[in-house]
């Protein structure tokens, strides 16, 4: 397409000027292309990258994160009004500002001053802003503020989003009002299976407050839903176990260890140390734990015991064999030369001739 057709107001140029004009067009100094752009044409990728870079240079950056920098100290209603007026072109200013406060972990007083300004201007604070403010409060463990938001939401709304329930559960479970997290867990159950984080927060709240039976009940309920507990949830049991002297409690912890073994859950170093300290704390049993490296034979150098072998049934072996052929030998890489007929033997690939 002729450039003169696109830019009808462009005056006719002399031949030399036309050549300069074409060179400038090819260099990307004008906003149009002298012919239709084909994304599959040769050099299209380079052309797109050059156009993108030119666009970035020509257009001023309008990144909301760069513009909306949270203040370091609380602002008055008037000061917030001036900032909002200055950023009048940005829609949803308050929500974007709260996003930046959460990202920068701004002081609660700063966020609260924005809420005051919103309430003064609009007469009320919406659900979305309450949830964002709650997110900041939970991340900073501002318990009193969490209480206030919980009470406000409980009064205003009959049903909350799952994310709001999860935030309230996390915030309340580590406080003196930890039992108020349990009805929220039940509310989630009405619409979906609670997450392992939801269960874990309630379990830790129960353990901190020595309600061991409730903690175990929630743990068994969670694993019955095929949810694998977070390692820090399991650690909470053993951390509390060091201060509990009860044979029934010991049985429960042994049952948790059996769950780890049966489901091949391998503890990290922090959980491992917690388990070790619990065993050492058992009166009259003289347990001793230390780090070691298991031999290839499966024998432990410290206690000379052998690790349990995994005895597979014929069906389990067939499933494992198919997965190895499909995922390891065949794989997803079409450029691999290995075929299903090739099997590793003593480090070398051997295939039938």
Write the layout of secondary structure elements.
Blueprint: H1 3-6, H2 15-26, H3 44-58, H4 64-67, H5 77-86, H6 93-104, H7 108-122, H8 127-139, H9 143-156, H10 162-173, H11 181-189, H12 196-208, H13 212-224, H14 231-241, H15 247-262, H16 269-281, H17 314-330, E1 343-345, E2 348-350
Antiparallel strand pairs: 1-2
Count of alpha/pi helices: 17
What series of H and E elements makes up the topology? HHHHHHHHHHHHHHHHHEE
β-strand percent reads: under 5%
The dominant shape is elongated
The secondary structure category is mainly alpha
Task: Give the strand order, joined by hyphens, for the main sheet.
Answer: 1-2
Largest sheet: 2 strands, antiparallel
Q: What percent of residues adopt helix (DSSP H or I)?
A: 55-70%
Kindly state the mean pLDDT as a whole number?
Answer: 79
Q: What integer value in Å does the Rg equal?
A: 32 Å
Number of strands: 2
The separation of the N and C termini measures: 62 Å
């Amino acid at each position: 397409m002729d450039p003169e057709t696109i830019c009808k107001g462009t005056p006719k140029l002399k031949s030399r000027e036309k050549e300069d004009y074409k060179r400038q067009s090819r260099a990307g100094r004008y906003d149009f292309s002298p012919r239709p752009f084909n994304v599959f044409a040769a050099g299209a990728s380079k052309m797109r990258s050059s156009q993108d870079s030119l666009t970035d240079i020509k257009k001023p950056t309008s990144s909301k994160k760069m513009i909306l920098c949270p203040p370091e100290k609380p602002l008055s209603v008037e000061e917030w009004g001036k900032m909002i007026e200055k950023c009048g072109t940005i829609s949803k200013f308050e929500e974007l500002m709260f996003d930046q406060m959460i990202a920068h972990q701004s002081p609660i007083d700063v966020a609260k001053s924005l809420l005051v300004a919103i309430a003064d201007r609009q007469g009320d604070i919406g659900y979305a802003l309450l949830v964002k403010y709650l997110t900041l409060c939970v991340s900073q463990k501002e318990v009193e503020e969490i209480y206030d938001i919980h009470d406000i939401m409980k009064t205003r709304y009959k049903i909350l989003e799952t994310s709001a329930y999860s935030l309230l559960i996390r915030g309340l479970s580590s406080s003196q009002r930890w039992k108020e997290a349990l009805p929220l867990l039940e509310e989630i159950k009405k619409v979906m299976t609670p997450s392992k984080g939801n269960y874990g927060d309630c379990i830790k709240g129960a353990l901190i407050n020595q309600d061991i039976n409730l903690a175990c009940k929630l743990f068994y309920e969670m694993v019955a839903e095929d949810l694998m507990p977070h390692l820090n949830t399991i650690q909470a049991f053993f951390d509390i176990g060091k201060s509990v002297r009860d044979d029934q409690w010991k049985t429960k912890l042994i049952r948790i260890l059996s769950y780890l073994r049966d489901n091949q859950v391998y503890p990290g170093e922090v959980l491992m140390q917690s388990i070790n300290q619990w065993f050492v704390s058992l009166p009259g049993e003289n347990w001793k734990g230390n780090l070691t490296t298991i031999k290839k034979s499966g024998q432990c150098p410290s206690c000379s015991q052998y690790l349990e072998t995994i005895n597979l049934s014929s069906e389990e072996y067939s499933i494992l064999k198919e997965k190895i052929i499909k995922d390891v030998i065949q794989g997803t890489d079409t450029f691999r030369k290995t075929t299903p007929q090739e099997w590793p033997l003593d480090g070398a690939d051997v295939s039938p001739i």
